[in-house]
Amino acid sequence: MSNEIKIGILAIVTVALTLWGYKFVEGSNILTPAKVLLAEYTNVGGLRPGATVMRSGVKVGVVTAVYLNPENLKTVVIEMNIDKQLQVPKDAIAEIVSADVMGEKDVYLVFERPCSGENCAKSGDYLIAGTKGMLASMVGNPDEVKAYVDVLNKGLMNAIDSLTQATSDPNSVVSKSLRDVDVILQNLKATTSNLNGLISSNTKQVNAILKNVADLTQLINGKNAELERIIGSVDTFTRELAELNLSKTVNNAEATLENLNKTIAGASETVNELKVALAKINKGEGTLGKLVTDDQLYQQLERTTTNLDLLLQDLRLNPKRYTTILRKKSAEYELPEEDPANKILPEAKVENK
Asked: What pTM did the predictor assign?
């Protein structure tokens, strides 16, 4: 087999599959034997090709075409592919109904009994056209709707009778509830009246408050530039504060405080030791304590210091007297005209040697 023949066969198969898929998407299967029935309407209410044809809730076909009658352009013709095994009488009604509240339409085949022979519709025959509104499509048989309405009416009347009987008895729960509701309404009315009076009596104050709010708003609007500058300054301060590495500064401060606490503790210990030393001095313990408490020792120490001062002064005034100590004959001591010892120690008597 040549390549041209293979390509031709592949093209034919592709076209056939495409046609079958298109028809299948529309709702018809070209592989299933079917007959074409038609119906003519004055208005199809938005029925579209692909709509389902139903019989007793079972799908028996699909609408394949919807178009205007070319002879008068006033009526609409629909074509339906119906399962060939279904025997549809010629007097069957093709009724357009609403499939849902969104407005989708289906076609229902309505007939009493199956047909046989010449009474059955053949391909190309027209069925009787019929339509049913949305409400009728939803509720179904009018007799069933009437039965539902009768039951609902009876139940509603019983409820009204029970409510009337309950309200006529002053001791019933319903009567008490109604009285409570009346009291609540009276209180609400009084509260509303008081509120109206309060509002009326404080109208001036409310107006003054509103005026103050308006003035404040106007003032804020006039200070927008300053507010923006303040907010900018706060933002800058916050950013600079974040850049200061505050945690490190706090740690350093804590270390400094710790060192300060140690210093204070050392100073406190020194003060305590000083207190102990002063207490011992006051008690006369030790050399310094005896010096502070013993007057005689103090006077002797003061006299010794004075004599030492006089000795040094005499050494300065009469150095020859001390340089001839190793000589066999020492120079005669000459008493100064104004002896400092006479002023410091009036009781001292200095003799010439």
From this structure: 0.37
